[in-house]
Amino acid sequence: GWGTTLYEYANEAEYLKFTHLKFIPLIGGIGLSEVRIHSNHLAFMLSEKYHSDVSYFYAPALADTLELKDTLLQTNLVKDVLQEGKQVELAILGIGDPLHSTTYQKLNYMTDSNLSSLKKAHAVGDIGSTIFTKDGTPITEGFAQRLLGIELSDIKKIPRVVIVATGIEKAESTKALLKLGFITDLIIDEKIAELL
Known about the structure:
Radius of gyration: 16 Å
Number of helices: 9
Structural class: alpha/beta
Distance between the termini: 23 Å
Largest sheet: 5 strands, mixed
Helix content: 25-40%
Order of helices and strands: HEHEHHEHHEEHEHEH
Strand order of the largest sheet: 5-4-3-6-7
Mean pLDDT: 92
């Protein structure tokens, strides 16, 4: 995953020896700003702390155009890491509220047009490269279709899915995903817990 919450998780992780592990970013992880919250940086941080191997997702989380996304999806660098991501045994993912997301704001992904489009589509959350409504239905138009990474349909097939979320604004997206029944582990703060 990516974002400020997962950065805090990675930052606080203890140094342990798990040489059998491999960290694989599940969403694009390159950009020019706020590199510390990009998936590649987080995967590297965890691999260093756990003395593990790491792969990298050599694409941005959000493509500038659909054409660029399609081109990137044809490259072996992106195809290979997506295939690796679909085969993980454990996924650690942050979830968000794209309408109030600090990650999207810090990365300058949220324009007025994108925000308006997501509001019209009734977006309440995001996980991996999927933005979804309160019943968990993926939004497949506008801004949402330019995200690069593992999709909700693939995440549901992962044997163990750990969700890490903090902040009251993520309560509705947490609730929506819990109803889908694929989350095996939930790490949340008290504010979210009170609203579930």
